[in-house]
Amino acid sequence: MPNAASWGRWCAAALLSGSAIVALAANDVPTPVGVWQIVDDTGDPKALITVTEKAGEYVGSLTKSLGRHDALERRCTECTDWRKDMKLQGLQIIRGLRRDAQRDEYIGGKILDPDSGHEYDCKMKVVDDGRKLEVRGYFGISWLGRTQTWIREP
Could you confirm whether the keyword Signal appears in this record (predicted)? Predict the structure, then answer.
């Protein structure tokens, strides 16, 4: 029979091992960090968005146009905030998202439609083993909006 000291060391080692396994499993969950191809309602690719994370906040910026060659040279003339008249190239269109681990999605953010200048509430969910990103823009409550599925770039 093990003594109390060795039993305590064994329990501590088991707890630490279990914590390490849980931490590894949590790190294997796909995140929205990366480059995503925006596909419009007709299925045509429109642009690439780069999503980054800093201090738990996820943001996304336009990085490449897949349609018109001059699209990213345009300016956000309809924007009414700090992005007014900024070039679409590098423009931050997603901001403020935070991970909700209970629902396994990213919530509490905003998404900008640079064509209209309107900003909508936003949430997203990584699906299909990290290959797709469901991005929902909505007005006030989630069912007053629409979802686009973006495709992760290799």
Answer: yes
